[in-house]
Design a protein that fits this description.
By secondary structure, the protein is an alpha+beta fold. The chain is built from 7 helices and 3 strands.
C-alpha cells in the first residue's frame, strides 16, 4: 500500500530483496491479481489449507473433553491431511564474498539514505543473538552512542544513524542505516564500517 512508497520502506525492502531474494513484505499480489481471483481459486485454497492437520482447537467450559475430542475425531478424522507445502523459511541468497548493491531515486527526499545489510545468526542461536543485540545497542542505540555520535556531532558526516538485527528461522539480518548529505555517502559508509570493524575486534 502507501507504506511501501515511503523512501525508508523502499530502501529497506530493496536491501532485503538483495539479501534474501524475496520482498520483506509478503503480500497476496497486486490489485489486478486480487481482482482476478475466481470462485474456483478460493475453493482450491479452502480444500488445500482448511484441513484438520492445520486446525488449532481450544476446548473450554463445563464439558467432557474426552467426549468432545471423540466427536471431533468422528467428524474430521476422515478428511485427508493437506500435502506439505514449500519451506517458507528465509535463506541467505548471497554467495561467499558476494556484494550486491542497488540505488533508488525518490523525488521527495533531499538527503541520502543508505542501508547496509549483513548476514546474522538465526533465531535459534540465542547467545549470539543476545551478544549482537547488546553490541548494536551500544554502538548505535541513541544519539550519543559511539557510531551515531562520531558521524553526527563529531564529524557532520550524517544527519542520523542506527543499527538493528532481525532474527529469522534459519538466517538473520544485521542492518546499518544512515541518513547523510549528498556527496558524503562514501565517507559516511567508511566511517560506519570502520567503527563496526573495531568493535568486533575487541577481545
Amino acid at each position: 500500500g502507501e507504506k511501501m512508497k515511503e523512501p525508508g520502506t523502499m530502501l529497506f525492502s530493496k536491501a532485503y530483496e538483495l539479501m534474501f531474494d524475496r520482498s520483506f513484505k509478503q503480500v497476496g499480489g497486486g490489485y489486478d491479481d486480487i481482482m482476478g481471483v475466481t470462485r474456483e481459486d478460493l475453493l482450491r485454497f479452502v480444500d488445500k489449507y482448511y484441513t484438520p492437520d492445520n486446525m488449532v482447537t481450544i476446548i473450554s467450559g463445563y464439558v467432557d473433553p474426552h467426549r468432545v475430542v471423540a466427536k471431533m475425531n468422528k467428524t474430521f478424522g476422515k478428511i485427508p491431511a493437506s500435502p506439505p507445502g514449500p519451506d517458507a523459511a528465509l535463506n541467505i541468497a548471497l554467495g561467499p564474498n558476494e556484494v550486491r548493491t542497488a540505488a533508488i531515486y525518490h523525488p521527495q527526499i533531499e538527503f541520502s539514505q543508505m542501508s547496509f545489510m549483513y548476514p546474522g545468526p538465526p533465531a535459534t542461536a540465542v547467545k549470539e543473538r543476545v551478544a549482537l543485540h547488546m553490541l548494536l545497542t551500544f554502538l548505535a542505540g541513541s544519539s550519543m552512542s559511539p557510531m551515531v555520535k562520531a558521524m553526527t556531532l563529531d564529524s557532520d558526516q550524517a544527519l542520523d544513524g542506527g543499527a538493528s538485527y532481525r532474527p529469522f528461522k534459519r538466517a538473520g539480518a544485521i542492518s546499518v542505516d544512515l541518513s547523510t548529505y549528498p556527496g558524503k555517502e562514501r565517507q559516511a559508509m567508511k566511517t560506519a564500517m570502520s567503527i563496526l570493524h573495531q568493535a568486533t575486534q575487541v577481545p
